[in-house]
């Protein structure tokens, strides 16, 4: 089937030829209260990946190995690559982490600081009996100790398990029980949630508390002070030399489509982290890079820790919650150059209005990226208007362990498209039997197995792992997409979310994107609702922008508006206004919940549901 609307090509991509002459002088660039950035910025220098076609044709993952540090006998450690090797490559005193806490206090850690602190933590973990393969989890806010702990776990050869700090006791219990974690690192503020479930965790031996006063710790419950442990530990640690296929971390998926899966990744993933951080994030020596994702999710772990540090890049972390003014202030304060965020955050920034953008300079920004959900074309166009930069969407999953499809800086951005497969990645769109489909045809998004960061297994769930390979010769992503004549991939929806209406297949994303183009609509979630006549009809749930008056008239107007943009069968016949949409804690719209609520069906696993 042909997709109902073929979105247009961006006219002013970050790498279009004519934009060079428009680069502003510093003095004139920050004009307050303008309605639009006056210029579209150009990449200041050539992109790290300059020539897509040539690199794609010539690249092999084998050749990328030379950029990483291996021990004798082909052994490797991802943490050695992220931190230790910078002790001897001139970056020892470079800031590795700019950590801004929720009171806006800034702490800086150099690669040397990280090296010594993580060595101490590795020694401490070993002194507790932690061995290669043991699961060590952390339940921490975005504070420096989270980063030290992650690196330390990997150095020991244990398996790191991130837990998002906003998890409630149930979400915590599911993951700690499933993984049989031996140790957890947390804070006094978060510990009460753990205390609630402690008696259900027979495998959990030690609870290391960061910033806990000694007298509050219960030795009988295995509670220990992080600071005391480190104080007594040596600053020297021999990084464990791992087999490239040894587990590095166990990451739980977002739970958007069902119960979160425990995805096992290995030390060799670092090759993929390194190359994609170089090509997609386009990181350079002098960049200040901010990834807004929490390390409780794959993006925050891979592109908030291992990828950028493997390149020796300075990383920013911000403990505070989302707030448009705070975010823009942080970018200006630290002069962030590369910014990796998500569609939900960008839609919220858009909702906060243009004025607040223009009250900030934001001139340090040179590259903006987005991941996690489809990025609506409207948001890309808004980004061009207010930041003067195209937002580069890219596609990957917890299971893929690294970015696979991306809008690379060297290619024009087509708003609404995820971009092209990276060098070393063969992606395609196939039917249910694995037969490749022609451009423009909607089908299953699949990838040839064998890239370095591909999942190695689903923790204690081999049948689930096997499901990813049910189409012979392919890794099956569970997403639906189509490819255009130029090889760009366009996301349609998760396979489960695609709507079948009067014989047409419609992806929720295109309908949602059309809805949010209406000035009254801030967010939209679209589902298929069973209908006798049409099989399914399209129902949309929308959240309105501030100050908009809801009413039947507005709903009719929005329907008419979307009718003009979508194929006749693809407009939402029902629209319901809501105060908010159900989202995962990582900020993804949970369409399955909208559907369950609408149809009065069981809601399934809601451990990932964000609290209102
Ligand atoms: P679960 O697997 O538990 O249901 P999840 O799929 O949301 O949750 P993640 O691994 O965090 O867990 O997310 C990967 C999914 O996010 C992709 O399969 C895709 O549906 C969506 N996604 C990620 N990036 C993009 C993107 N650029 N455009 C569209 N969708 C994206
Ligand atoms: Mg998934």
Strand content: 15-25%
Bound molecules: adenosine-5'-triphosphate, magnesium ion
- How does the helix and strand content classify structurally? alpha/beta
Helix content: 25-40%
Q: What is the CATH superfamily classification of the largest domain?
A: ANL, N-terminal domain
The CATH class designation of the largest domain is: Alpha Beta
Give me the Rg, rounded.
24 Å
Question: Your description of this structure?
Answer:
The protein is α/β, with parallel strands linked by helices and 612 residues long. Helix 5 crosses helix 6 and helix 10 crosses helix 11. The longest helix has 17 residues. 53% of the residues are buried. The N terminus is likely disordered. The site of adenosine-5'-triphosphate has 24 residues, from strand 14, strand 20 and strand 21.
Which properties best describe this structure?
Rossmann fold, five-stranded parallel β-sheet, single chain, 612 residues, binds adenosine-5'-triphosphate, alpha/beta, 19 helices, GMP Synthetase, Chain A, domain 3, binds magnesium ion
Write a concise synopsis of the structure shown.
With 612 residues, the protein is an alpha/beta fold. 28% of the residues lie in helices and 21% in strands. A nine-stranded mixed sheet has the order 2-1-11-10-12-13-14-15-16, sandwiched between helices. It has a five-stranded parallel sheet with strand order 4-3-5-6-7, sandwiched between helices. The protein has a four-stranded antiparallel sheet with strand order 17-18-20-21.
List the helices and strands and how they pair.
Blueprint: H1 26-29, H2 52-58, H3 61-64, H4 78-82, E1 95-100, E2 106-110, H5 111-127, E3 135-139, H6 144-156, E4 159-163, H7 169-179, E5 183-186, H8 191-195, E6 206-209, E7 223-225, H9 226-231, E8 247-252, E9 262-266, H10 269-279, E10 288-291, H11 298-310, E11 314-318, H12 324-334, E12 338-341, H13 343-352, H14 354-358, E13 367-370, H15 377-387, E14 391-395, E15 405-406, E16 420-421, E17 427-430, E18 443-447, E19 457-458, H16 462-467, E20 475-483, E21 489-494, E22 499-501, E23 504-506, H17 508-516, E24 521-531, E25 535-544, H18 552-565, E26 574-577, H19 591-599
Parallel strand pairs: 1-11, 3-4, 3-5, 5-6, 6-7, 10-11, 10-12, 12-13, 13-14, 25-26
Antiparallel strand pairs: 1-2, 8-9, 9-19, 14-15, 15-16, 17-18, 18-20, 20-21, 22-23, 24-25
Bound molecules: adenosine-5'-triphosphate and magnesium ion (MG).
